[in-house]
Amino acid sequence: MTASSTVLVTGASGFIAKHIVRELLESGYGVRAAVRSATRRAQVEALFPDAGIEFVSLDLTSDEGWDAALRGVDALMHTASPFPTAPPKDPQDLIRPAVDGTHRALRAAESAGVTRIVLTSTCGAIYKPADQQWERVKTRADWTDPEGPRTTPYEASKTLAEQAAWRFAADHPEIRLTTINPGMVFGPALDEHYGSSLDLVEQILAGRMPFYPNVQMPAVDVRDVARMHVRALADEGSVGQRFPANAGAMTIPEIADVLRRAFPDARIHGRVAPDWLVRALATVVPLLRTAATGLGHNADVVGTDAPRQFGFEYIPTSDAVLASAEFIRSRR
């Protein structure tokens, strides 16, 4: 894989994917961007108006367009996956498109002779293993149990999709697969369309969280996540490996403390909620159900494999959180 190669990026309008597109362009790669709608295409075009990006329309739930989209590219960067704003009533609403979409992407790649694939997974596919040893730090050898008592539908969808990708690669030895597994992704957005991690920062800054569930999460800056994806393309040593992207785990109260110290003018208030209260409220407040599954759980994942393999140092987690906050405040 050389810097003059062309890469298909699925889900190209996503928070992480936009940074990946920028990193690819700055590294000299050509980009074919897959989006679901004209609106999402316009978002990407507005960021990179003169970059010569080629656009295609793809849907995780439809076969239409996949074969043509993979034709003539040198690598596939599969970032697309459904992400809920609240837990779905039926977990299959997330699981089916995530798994089926991954199958579609890899089958089309194999059919087109595209053998280099980098897949965006998550630390959520790692940190809730079947042994239910909640207190230990997890490694990339661990797998979340999709049917585990604490596993959310999103974590199950990402776990099953990544496992499907590795099975496909095992059945097709010519496929050279690497997965990148980010934790909660902070850092600056490239536009006003960003993900749930920045929504969390925005809620804390605005004083809309009266209390903070004591939930821990691995965390990383989006710029490091993009760097890992792009460096993996040309790094044959990364083939067959999964790389947790985690600069250091933080709890929600710790994130609030970082923001409170940095922005004393912000209306940051609230106290740490006792676990029993979070569990009780989660029965009636859907947005707290995910938080409740993380109570008393060490979600830390060893993230040192990636810097060692790809030759970089993580942006500290607190700096990533502050970069999110600075972006949000600059848009007011």
UniProtKB/TrEMBL annotation:
Signal peptide: none annotated. Keywords: Oxidoreductase. The lineage of its organism: Bacteria, Bacillati, Actinomycetota, Actinomycetes, Micrococcales. This is SDR family oxidoreductase. InterPro entries: Epimerase_deHydtase, NAD(P)-bd_dom_sf, NAD(P)_dehydrat-like. Transmembrane segments: none annotated. It comes from the Bacteria. Pfam families: Epimerase.
